[in-house]
Amino acid sequence: MNNKPLILVVEDDPAVRNLISTTLEAHDYKHHAAPTGEAAILEAASHNPDVILLDLGLPDTDGVQVIQKIRSWSNTPIIVISARSEDTDKIEALDAGADDYLTKPFSVEELLARLRVTFRRLHGGSGGSQDGAVFENGELKIDYAAGCVYLGGEEIHLTPIEYKLLCLLAKNVGKVLTHSYITREVWGSAWENDVASLRVFMATLRKKIEKDPSAPQYIQTHVGVGYRMLRV
Length: 232
Description:
Rossmann fold; transcription regulation; globular; cytoplasm; identical protein binding; 4-stranded antiparallel sheet; 12 strands; 5-stranded parallel sheet; WalR-like
């Protein structure tokens, strides 16, 4: 039990907090809970959790500000769980440093799946091709063994989902991958038609690797079909 991951649950709604806590307990995850942004920052600083589950609508501060404060000193994965479902809200949270975004209402199975994706990334399950291999395409470089991505020689920070998306496209460079194939590979078969989430994460990924996201050099959109990584 001692080597089980510690999860910090930041949620002011007692019903939702209890649902998440009960789910984590049933799957042997250790967890702490915080009902406010201030409590969340104190818990994150004092207990160094492995993952943070964060609601955005907190009573004392906006969750995006909590993300920004935690990101000033920690790279702990943050999964947002919020009723805000607009793409602009999701992109704002991801740009602030969140790693994933789950919209309320959510199923416990979906929450557990998002946690598994995050833990695989933490423990080296990158979704890349061969261990020890390096993928290079123009100024873009992926070191699969280290789990690092470089652009023009400088390392760029990708969230677990962004990294998995990039590795999947790189592994299939030149091929058009359908929306359903990509979402199934990234999130699992239960969410293989979640094109809305895919669109949001592709937008944030492009912001980080494309000089001009409106005229992408690396990732091409095939409208109504999917995406393809171009060989530069």
